[in-house]
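User: Quick sanity check before I run a bigger batch. Here is a single chain. Can you write out its predicted 3D structure?
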Amino acid sequence: MRSRAVWLWVLRVTLAGLFAWAAIPKLIDPGQFAAAIDNYRAVPEALAGHAALFVPVLELVIAIALLVPAYHRGAACLAAVLLVVFAVAMAQARWRGIDLSCGCFGATLEAKVSWLTVVRTLALGVLSALVLLASPGGAEVREGARASNPNTP
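Assistant: Done. Predicted structure follows.
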């Protein structure tokens, strides 16, 4: 039981570090992040600026909340959802043949969107979901899913 708590803490700290690392350059240069969002051609151009302000703040809140025991499960849920949204945005760009930098870490790390980037982002989403489900209280989430679907073993 103790080893589970240790690996969950390590995972939470790692995810928090990644989210903070992703948020800070975007907060420093929201214009560049707005341009990266616009390059995806997934949201109307008029919303790209708003998203460029909202997303990094959300990422920073997630990073901080992952470190606070009372909030880490909610943060893990938000992280998983946000990472899936990011993966879907990247996948649609790849399917449409759009060649772009992911914008994941602002200008600090320019990485082209590839299928590997999509898979890596989904893997981080799965790790975030594991934090939610494996943390104390995660049993209620699993039991609630079983109760709502009687066919679940």
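Residues 2-148 form one domain.

User: Great, the batch can go ahead then.
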